[in-house]
Queue: 2 jobs
Job 1
Amino acid sequence: MMKLSRLAYLGLSLLTAIVFLLLYGPLLVPIISSFFEVAHGNVQWDTPSLSSYAALVHNEGIITAFLNTLIVGFCATFLSVVLGILFAVHYRNGSSLGRDLMQFVVFLPFLMPPIMIGLALLIFFRETDIPRSLLTVIIGHTVFVLALAYRTIVVRLQSLSASFIEASYDLGASSWQTFFYVVLPSLKSALIGSAILCFALSFDETMITILVTGTDNTLPIRLWAMMRLGFTPDINALVALILALTTAMCILAVRYLLPKESADNAA
Amino acid sequence: MLLVGDQQAKGWRFALSTLAYGLPFIFIVAPLLSFIVYSFFWVEGGQMHFNLTLGNYIRFFTDAIFIPVLWQTCLLCLMVAVFAVLLGYPVAFLLASLSGRRKYMLLMLVLVPLLMSYIIKIYAIRSILGGNGFLNRFLVWTRLIDQPLTIFVFNLNAVLLTLTMLLIPFAILPIFLSLERIPKNLIEASTDLGASNWQTYCRVILPMSLPGVVTAASFVFVLAIGDFLTPQMVGGPSGFTFGRIIYSQFGAAFNWPFGAALSVILALVMIVVIALGNRFERRI
Amino acid sequence: MTIKLNRRTALSMGLAAPALLRASWARAASELRVMAWEGYADDDWVKEFQAQTGATAKVVFIGTDDEIWAKIKGSEGKDFDVFAVNTAQLQRYIDAGLTTPHDLDKLPNHKNVLPRFQDLSKIKGVMRDGKVHSIPFCFDSIGLIYDKDKVTPAPDSFEILWDPKYKGKVLAYDNGEHNFSFTALTLGIADPFHLSGEDMEKIKAKLSALKQNVLSFYTTPDEALQLYKSNDVALIWANYGQQQVKAMKDAGANIGYVNPKEGALAWLDTWAMTNSVQDKELAEAWVNFLLQKKIGEQLSERTGFGNTVAESGSANPNDKLVWLEFVEDPTKRSDLWNEIKAQP
């Protein structure tokens, strides 16, 4: 990208700071509260303590729910990215009518309200005797976020110049080699980007999960049920920990996966 | 064309086609189709009648409340999409013009809030915007206002504000990806030919980033319009959206046929809006 | 509604096979699948039950009546063994054949319940054709919470919710059925659960007026508390009765609770078994376990609800309570409520 003038840089930085305030502002509430005693929903500002963290460690239910959320998130993300690649390749190769139809079908669950997808899938699982469990949750999430992965990947794939692929064949590579060594690397940013968005959507997905889960709980389900009696203080601790963990993972990922020189060329 | 040429590839292409058609058919078409068929049934006095009728769709057009609410909801979500893109574009641009680790670091920091539970975020936003909330207390403390204002919450403005805050990251990423894709040599060429930064931006960068903008806007629009929880929690008496109507059909009202019909109509509206967006992008 | 296509059935069999294997292995060990409101299946009770019976209990918590219906009807009862439901809502489950009647012989603790809950034939909605479809567990009234500092003297009727003096300081509940019922009582209509078309129009007009006076609608008790804390609220229509009162008082609010003179709605939550209950003995054991005195006392202490085995401080005997019944047309009430909400 181009070099920015000082003024432009300052202006953009200011706007970015405002956006960050909007993004992180609401999170400060539970995070700061996690470091204080909470009695009956009121934060006791004069009693700093780590009791919410202690309570979190003992709350097996929430920890299990959180782990379930992670499992579902990773599986659904993996499946939707792989399927997204599959469908994107097929779109590029396929016949005009067939591929538009396929694309329409892939987009459909994203466009329908989640409660309808959830009910439709529940009835479908019931009719085909697939017992409700984390597996059905994973299927439900994949069906929902697939459109996101597919759209991001297909847009990137379409802009991939045919000449690269032809050159690869000309140099004697087989289809598979072309796919793995030419196509896939150029999709890297789209793959990572869509993986992150899919994981984020799956992490927070409540409506479909509530309907197709049977007896397993995920974190959004527990939070949804907690809306009745109020969030327990360990939830504040959980939010703070998730934030700390993901930020730490990002710092580590950027530091170790992106050596300084190649980061400049990565795109 | 990918996967062409060798015989082995032919077999894989067939497998690919089967999967590409088979999987969506099983897990998407079958469940949704049977549910869409529901939209042609009807409910009377708490009992579902399994004979086909267009009654639900006719009701949507004839009953006075549905079209105005749908229209209002679409306008609201379009505004959310516009605001999210307006706020997200500068951030994406700044990110794209950074180099090295700082770029990805900042990008990650933009995406991290997405992993914070959205229920908790709405709760936090609602308490910040409330009469005794942080925002009002801050404004009173700085003497900008004398009494706490009730305009921030429990109305459509609150829904607009909250949805925008929640969905900005979904706008930033697609725009960022499309900015990154712009070949550097095009920009360099433009500067070499004597264009100022602003001209380069308007003539080269902006048009090439539009596909990303349209993608961002459509993601945000779809996510906003399907969300019923935010309007439910911060919308109050006047922030009534189409999503809330749909949601209520699937509860004790037990009017799944009507809910399915409304969902189909909503999906059609979304398809139209997104198609219009794509058309607009192609014109430019 | 089954769609039968040979190819699809074969395909789904193929896909379902590994899942079924996993499921059948799971069924070998005894498992109870419970659907409950928060507060009805606390961790310590579940642990004790599991220790006593040697089985595992998996509890899923829900937040609204709508969810219970969506999940149980959607799966035709196959996903759960026992669920908590109030007597009014129970009717639609019995109508749809989604329950299995209880066998009172398997519930020895039922002899210990309070006298007024002993004779199940006297409790409306619990029995159908001589069979007991659910066992009462806890109850409460739906009264009026008022802020003692902002509202003096203490109100005695729901009419105060319409008082323009409290415009923008009222919280109402987001549910068509209950709102129509209580407004019917306020208007003096005798049977709030079987309204005529004419009555409904009158109530609709009155509720539209209420909407102008309301700050917001809430769905969960904690939500009402949060709204109270961050805004200037004087009156709350308390759908969750004592549970809300307790939570608010614990949080330091100076509030009072009153069951209005025209009558307050009251709900009675019960435990029912689904039509697909896997282990009936285990399900009965669960209900029996919860009918113990100490569980009842803990329930009342932790949530503030009235329980069926031990006396608790809920509801003054002189208050007029109108127990919830299944309404004449839930769909119509929901539609009318949407219309009221859609008005500018």
Job 2
Amino acid sequence: MGIINDNVNLLIAFFIGILFGGMLEAAGFTNTRKLAGVFYGYDFTVLKVFFTAALTAAVGLFLMHHYGLIDLTQVFYPHTYWLPTLVGAFVMAFGFIIGGFCPGTSFCGAVTGKIDALVFVGGVFIGIFFYAFTYQAVFEKFRNSTFMGQVNVADWLGIREGVFLAIMVFVAIGSFFFANWVQKKVNKNKSPEELEDLGL
Amino acid sequence: MKNKYLNPYVAGFFIGIALIAAYYFSGEGLGASGAFKRFVIASIDAVSHTYAQTSHYTASVVKNGNPLDSWLVFELLGLGFGAILSAAIFGRLEWKIGKSPKISNKTRLIAAVIGGFLWGIGSQLGRGCTSGLIMSGMAVNSLSGYIGLIGVFGGGYLIAYFFRKLWI
Amino acid sequence: MAMKKTDLIILGLMALGAIWALFLPNVKPHIRYLDNHEILYKINTKERYLSVDDVAKIIMTKNPGYILVDVRKPEAYKQFTLPGSINIPLDSLFTDNNRKLLEQDVYKLVFFSNGTSLADRAWLLSTAAGYTGLYVMKGGLNAWFNDLLMPKRPSDIAPPQEFDLYNFRRGAAAFFTGASAGEEASPAKATVNITVPVKKKEVGGGCE
């Protein structure tokens, strides 16, 4: 790790972005019906990709820290403001169910020709502009409320991080098997055309 | 033509690698809404620098120089590039409106704007979107990441039924 | 939809990593943030206070269970400080090195300053962040001088405990000032090495 020249840093960001975007598109996340599938039971790709990514990183970083490859006490660590985060997350949930994208996937969709994604991206900008101009008057105080510090979820639950990670990974793996079962049932009577249309 | 996609676990695994690389090389996680935010701030700054310096929302970003000179912005550019590459390989580079056959194009596009708008507000309130808040948060076992996870996915499941007509 | 071989390989890797992680220690030691009620309670009980007499005893008996922490600026520390104390100015309280001192639980820390308020502030910040085993020398160095080193003779009708205290203080004053040939607390004296937080066997010995 250590200090990296600023410009090299940005270049690295670009290449990491390429990997990220490439994998998102390859997994099919420019297709909104495929994305929404996790909420309706016909396609659990989102669940699989998301948890695999987050937990691979979590376990990987944790192991790397232990063996001195990275110092996790020196990286950016999120500050927890639990209420605005929860409320914001609910708003985002509405955005997901109605719009069928999140900002990252919508950008990928937009650049690969999906017009609905392009429109979605426009919506995100409008939303942020709206927020920017109403921030001081409306959102600022709320957004800065309920600060808890830089809280580690394992600490907060009172268990060791290693235990927490192990539990999460096994819960995730279990959920993958369960998801497969649900998906099979939900799609049992669908025709091949329907399935293809859904993005499967 | 059959839809051809990369194995979701493989894709997830490599996104996890990207996330690790992000933390390793640059000390911060992945993100998307943050880049959008900087584009907005950059435009506000271009129109009126004085306003940008005084408004609470923009001030902390503009005082550190060009809003676009940021890790997240370059990451987002890479995101687009990678998506184009993959779409080209898989043959998915085409103009299209992704939607359920049961709704009209107009409905879909209106829903997309509304959805985007909600993400605009929600991601700012919540300090990130799925990648920035949840995935990057979970990668370091941050409570905020898990709150986001429960809010977005839990919330989604709660309201999915009421909007099912959009999808199935 | 069944699991393919590739799927199982990746899931297997994750499971392996998780089991491996299971046995590893936390990234940071467990820090518990106190809520307002707990902090207020701790402030009100005043359990944290040690008197100058207590601290004098600690020094005189060379009690190994305590570390005295001067929270004033380095210039004040160099001018005069308690024998054997270390200097952590208030604004350096939470640097990485000093946090290790707060995190360890072998030694108890006694914060002191000229009066009580600066030391109290150090105590409050550390306690609110969840650290324990922290104390404050009530009255600070002012009390050290005025009460301990220059004790006032109690009136003739005072109870015996006051006389005991007075005599103790006279003894302490002699100890500290009599032995003070060259006792301008040299900062170099007080580097405590905390790298091995193993409980020393002597700690239970106390005064014997």
